[in-house]
Write a structure and sequence with these properties.
Blueprint: E1 14-23, H1 31-47, E2 52-54, H2 72-86, E3 93-102, E4 105-114, E5 117-123, E6 146-150, E7 153-159, H3 169-174, E8 179-184, H4 192-207, E9 211-215, E10 217-220, E11 223-226, E12 230-232, E13 238-241, E14 248-257, E15 269-272, H5 296-314, E16 320-323, H6 328-341, E17 346-350, H7 358-371, E18 374-377, H8 381-395, H9 402-423, E19 426-429, H10 433-438, E20 451-452, H11 459-469, H12 478-482, H13 502-514, H14 529-541, H15 543-547
Parallel strand pairs: 1-2, 2-3, 6-15, 7-8, 8-9, 16-17, 16-19, 17-18, 19-20
Antiparallel strand pairs: 1-14, 3-4, 4-5, 6-7, 9-12, 10-11, 12-13
């Protein structure tokens, strides 16, 4: 943690405030649940004597609500819920994100609620329309920034993207405020927290103003939100910081040297917040809070666990099932599932074929023992023979090949889906980003399921995460980490029969997919130009497969789906 510099403060021209950042997990469309969470937090911070509590962007609706925003009843329910929330804010000033409709326009807004009264609204002025964001589809831009006075301090309000651009509304506010508040729902990808933290530090220095920033935490479909809420002083020193991937209410006391701000400022809407009538006579001592910086592997793993848990539970499932092949991908997926749901809620299924090695079966059983999960063993040789019998006439005079290999994967997919239908267990698929990129996966086979946990995790990172997981004790068997990857759909098959080694493949995929580099720009030692062209061609040809696969957790800056949207039918040659 960066320590804030101690500065001499002129207490004749300063004010002390106690703020609370509610880094909480919302539910899209869960108006009742979100309102209850807000009510619970307000009760907690009221007891601690907080002056202001901040909730994340669009907390009332959940984030991102997407096309639910086009439904009139959704907006009506949002407005009704906000009124109920206002009644729970006695003794407090609360900033709550919601969707506001005014004069036929919809805004991404922050309600300023003081002691049960909704006294003003800040509207998001900069609407992101890149990557996973599509806000211009739904919202109109706010026209002027908002500030409010509380206990003599002038406090500015902004929403997420408003702070990402230095020339945004924070710049016009900065000369007229003593503190800037930002409520956000900024999704995670590897390295995002560090970029975000440095951005906020940079803004505080540029604006010469402390910044309090609250971020959403939790999973929503492909997205996972990491929290990492923080407070920085005007020199960029970190005053307080919330932990990643955890729900927390971060309290902090701040003494603000007051600027000579006029009651009115051109281009800024100014309101006065009445001092909330709290019954607290003496402030309670704030609880000790510790922040722990995570390594890159721990951060990614935490994102996968939280994203999986929320997707499964928020969609009404409590138990999951997955195929255990003895490979590293299914091993890592199983470990994530256990950490997300508990061992009692994870079931592994072994489905060996005549091509499955004894080692793979033993490795699966050893993994299951380490994780303490229940397993079933369904050999598929009889099903393979049944397919062979049914197809023998049409397949005669042809050589066995990919069709026969894929039948095995589809038999396994059918067995998993049968168990899912019978017992209500969600099927987790186990493919990684390298495989999905190259189409090295089988539609309606190993792609069949409800959620693809490591879909956005490149193969090299799969190994890094697995080795990190084994740092204290063996969870993933050593043999799984050491053996050469294989789908085991034919005798002596290896992934390298079809793909370059992953340590060469992944850098090409990174450049081509995440950086949109041209083939001329991609140069990886050990790969020919022709091989690089083949990789790019397979990536593009496999778009139709990815469209039919389950969603998975976004981990990289550009994930398939919301981030990367290419037409299936096209003649462009890279």
């Amino acid at each position: 943690m960066v320590r804030a510099k101690k500065k001499a403060v002129d207490f004749k021209k300063s004010v002390s405030l106690r703020l609370a950042l509610a880094q909480v997990n919302g539910l899209v469309g869960g108006f009742k649940a979100n309102a209850e969470k807000i009510k619970s937090v307000c009760a907690k911070v009221r007891k601690m004597g907080a002056d202001v509590v901040l909730f994340p962007e669009l907390m009332v609706t959940g984030y991102p609500p997407e096309d639910l925003l086009l439904k009139e009843k959704f907006i009506e329910d949002c407005q009704k819920t906000l009124k109920k929330i206002a009644s729970t804010t006695h003794g407090l000033t609360a900033v709550v994100g919601y969707a506001e409709k005014e004069a036929g326009k919809l805004y991404n807004s922050a309600a300023l609620i003081c002691d049960r009264k909704h006294i003003a609204t800040a509207r998001k002025m900069l609407l992101p329309n890149y990557g996973v964001f599509d806000e211009k589809r739904y919202f109109a831009e706010g026209e002027e920034p908002l500030r409010f006075s509380l206990k003599g301090a002038q406090i500015g309000l902004s929403i997420c993207e408003d702070i990402w651009e230095e020339s945004g509304p924070g710049k016009s506010l900065s000369k007229h405020i003593d503190l800037l508040l930002n409520i956000s729902s900024s999704p995670y990808h590897k390295g995002k927290a560090q970029v975000r933290r440095q951005m906020i530090i940079k803004r505080a220095k540029a604006y010469k103003c402390p910044i309090a920033y609250v971020n959403l935490v939790g999973g929503q479909d492909e997205l996972v939100f990491d929290g990492h809420s923080l407070v920085v002083d005007s020199d960029g020193g970190i005053i307080a910081q919330a932990n990643s991937f955890e729900e927390e209410v971060l309290f902090f006391d701040i003494t603000l040297p007051l600027k000579d701000c006029k009651a009115k400022a051109k281009g800024i809407r100014s309101v006065k917040a009445p001092t909330a009538r709290s019954k607290i006579n003496k402030l309670k001592e704030l609880p000790t809070h510790s922040y722990t910086e995570k390594s890159e592997e721990e951060e990614v793993y935490s994102a996968l666990v939280l994203g999986a848990r929320d997707y499964i539970r928020k969609n009404g499932f409590s138990k999951v099932i997955l195929g255990l092949s003895g490979g590293i991908d299914s091993s890592l997926t199983a470990a994530i599932a256990v950490d997300a749901l508990g061992a009692a809620n994870v079931v592994g299924v072994l489905m060996p074929s005549p091509h499955s090695s004894t080692g793979s079966i033993n490795d699966s059983l050893e993994l299951a023992k380490n994780l303490k999960i229940k397993t079933f063993n369904f050999p598929i040789v009889s099903a393979m023979k049944a397919y062979e019998y049914i197809l023998q006439e049409i397949f005669k005079d042809t050589e066995p090949g990919l069709a026969e290999e894929n039948v095995q994967a589809r038999i396994r997919g059918n067995l998993l889906m049968a168990l899912s239908n019978k017992f209500g267990w969600m099927v987790l698929t186990t493919g990684n980003k390298s495989e999905y990129s190259m189409g090295y996966c089988t539609l309606y086979g190993d792609m069949a399921g409800g959620f693809a946990v490591i879909k956005d995790v490149p193969k090299v990172l799969v190994y890094q995460l697995s080795n990190w997981l084994n740092r204290d004790k063996i969870i993933i068997p050593k043999n799984v980490l050491n053996k050469e990857p294989s789908a085991e759909l034919r005798p002596d098959q290896k992934d390298t029969d079809s793909l370059p080694p992953y340590e060469l493949l992944d850098p090409v995929l990174l450049s081509y997919i995440e950086e949109d580099a041209s083939l001329e720009e991609i140069k990886v030692a050990g790969l020919s130009k022709a091989e690089t062209q083949r990789i790019a061609r397979l990536v593009d040809l496999s778009e139709y497969k990815r469209r039919q696969g389950p969603p998975g957790i976004k981990i990289t800056p550009k994930a398939f789906g919301k981030d990367r949207r290419l037409p299936i039918t096209n003649r462009f040659k890279p």
